[in-house]
Structure formats: C-alpha cells, structure tokens
Design a protein that fits this description.
With about 120 residues, this protein is mostly beta strands. The protein is built from no helices and 11 strands. The protein has strands at about 1-5, 10, 20-25, 30-40, 45-50, 55-60, 65-70, 75-80, 90-100, 105, 110-115. β4 (about 30-40) and β5 (about 45-50) form a beta hairpin. The relative contact order is 0.32.
C-alpha cells in the first residue's frame, strides 16, 4: 500500500506561481512512477505531468514550459512547480503513484484557484 497526501494548493492571481507537494508513505520501494492530474469543474480528470523512477519527466502540452515536476527522494516527496498560472489552470490537483505491477494509488487532491 502507498499513501499519498497533497498540499500547497490555494488561491493565486494569474501569472503568479504555486508549488504543490505530494508526500508518499508506505511501500515506497514499489513505486515505478508518480504523476499529477487535475480536474476542473464539469470536466474529466486530465493528466498533467509524470516522473519515472529513472528521473524521466513528461508533460501535457497545456503545461509544457510552465510547470516542472520533481522529486526529493530523501523526503519521499514529489513536487509540481507551477509558473505563469492561467485561469484555466484552476482545478483540483491529484497526485498518483504507480507500481511495477500495475497498482495505482491516489491522493485526496488539493484545490488550485487562479483568479484575479
């Protein structure tokens, strides 16, 4: 089992930055990749970014160049640095962790609201 807890969401003005954190606990050694998703009101959950165990990073086109995914192994924590935020980035952000045998674990989500 892997437990995930997101933090760092909040209200921010367009153009500003925010950093989300996802702390992992439990069977950390089983994790092969971690990622971020988001879900805006009335929309389906969409993938945002992913980081693999070897450090490879992948981004959705909508956030490429603005968001940066990273991890700090010593703290079992993954981050999402979000710069140049847009109103359309408003959503509940979720982190997930995937194991080598196909299990997927989710956090509870953290709200990000971009508004002037």
């Amino acid at each position: 089992q892997v437990q995930l807890v997101e933090s760092g969401g909040g209200l921010v003005q367009p153009g500003r930055s925010l950093r989300l954190s996802c702390a992992a606990a439990g069977s950390i050694s089983s994790i092969s990749s971690m990622g971020w998703y988001r879900q805006a009101p009335g929309k389906q959950r969409e993938w945002v970014a992913r980081i693999t165990i070897d450090g490879s990073m992948y981004y959705a086109d909508s956030v490429q160049g603005r968001f940066t995914i990273s991890r700090e192994n010593a703290k079992n924590t993954m981050y999402l640095q979000m710069n140049s935020l847009l109103v359309e980035d408003t959503a509940v952000y979720y982190c997930d962790a995937r194991t080598g045998w196909g299990m997927v674990y989710w956090g509870q989500g953290t709200q990000v609201t971009v508004s002037s």
